[in-house]
């Protein structure tokens, strides 16, 4: 029995002591987070653990300092400090190494060089690592300064160096990887050259010679090269060799292209292209021969053509991107390019982005579409062209569409929305004024839209090739609008009689298609004006903006006015209906009269009828017995009795 009790006791005790133990075990990893840090991987100087921790991206509060600017392999040692900038922040772990650097200051190898001696051995414990060439801390003391002496004992191991260290701040969550010291030059080697761009600038394109010594195509007209959006020059050097200069203003400082196409027409596509492309990866500007396809260019595959056709200058690079200007200068041997067009041709220029040395598609917006000489020019002659070809069909499309929507569309809409109740008793060929106006406006709109639609299909030669937003949306919206525009007159023609029970439904469908077309047309007009081919000046967009705004204000005003006068209108409509009715009756009397004079009281009786139907019921029985047997009462049925 005793044993049993003892057992129970021990179980209880185990429970009693185990619980805090488990808690401590659980607590411990959190508590000892800094202890887990394992610094560092030789070479990359990344932390070995913890794995998920990201290095701090803010400037490090710790620095690797050296005073010396030079050292000699096998010579004297130099002092290196790892120090806290403001002494309030301290570091615990670190690893320090020296690495060789190239002439331009970039790291040439991750391997550690030389050997360190800890000058603060009495305070902090460090060990050598990475084959005794690097040094790292093994104590857990907080440090704000630790001094080393470094020496490259091997005379043959030459090279400029930098010191670098990974430093973990006290607390263990902040650390900085590969903090670099200033470079220390090897006295035996040529000095470092760390200028960012060591290539000489290629000379600007001389525009003084345009038209005299060489042919030029410049946009804007007569520009001086640094201000030209596009510039291409050509000068015959020998046989079928030409010196070509290409230049363009770019929107970036890297990875851009400027290209020149020799073409039969003013459109980019199926032409020989000379491209000047900046390759951001190799930081070089290359020239190649290509072919334009739709809105981009492909480089001719045959290396033989590229090598034989393009000859660079004897000295310096073929081209350069400097600031926001890209320019190339090269000699092209046209005989080496298969299918190089002879004779008078349009010269087209395109520019845009490039990726890894390959030119990208050109844009479709204002200032993005290629420019073309309005007339054909010959590379043999020293032309001086500054103008660019216009796309008259695109302009016609735009003008017709704006006329259709901004003028006829808005006007037609206003008539049907707000003028239905005006001039209730005036007619034009038997139709109410608003209807006549609305009908005519809409007929004009449909006509103009159909013409503009055909024009743009002819110009583009099929469906639009602009395949990115917002330009991609223009043809899609256009086709939807076109369908609405075609459906609506058909619906209007097939509509049932005014008093048919389906008439309101048809009216709503008519309204729906009209409204959808109109609502899509407004954004589509703005997208359209943004197309480069339309060549719309920037202020034209504002005029359209103001016009649309004005239209909206007019609509709102009319809407408010209609709302306020709705009640009044209803009463007035009743009145006008009746005055209208009496008017007609009098006309009817006039028609009939000469034969018979209706008595005054009969007329009064007629006017007492409150609705058309009762009046019409009443009419036959009171029809004059003599006179014309057929009396036109058509007008009466058409009166708006509400
Ligand atoms: C390293 O720190 C010590 C003590 O502050 C200082 O005397 C020495 O000049 C420093 N050395 C370097 C290279 O900064
Ligand atoms: C651009 O430069 C990179 C790196 O040098 C190279 O790999 C690539 O082929 C170049 N692109 C072209 C089109 O030459």
UniProtKB/TrEMBL annotation:
SMART domains: B561 (SM00665). The keyword Glycoprotein applies. It comes from the Eukaryota. Keywords: Electron transport, Glycoprotein, Membrane, Signal, Transmembrane, Transmembrane helix, Transport. GO terms for cellular component: membrane. InterPro entries: Cyt_b561/ferric_Rdtase_TM, Reeler_dom, Reeler_sf. The chain crosses the membrane at residues 396-415, 435-456, 476-494, 506-527, 539-558. Residues 1-32 form the signal peptide. It is found in: Membrane. The keyword Transmembrane helix applies. Its main location: membrane. Residues 360-567 form the Cytochrome b561 domain. This is Cytochrome b561 domain-containing protein. It comes from Mytilus galloprovincialis.
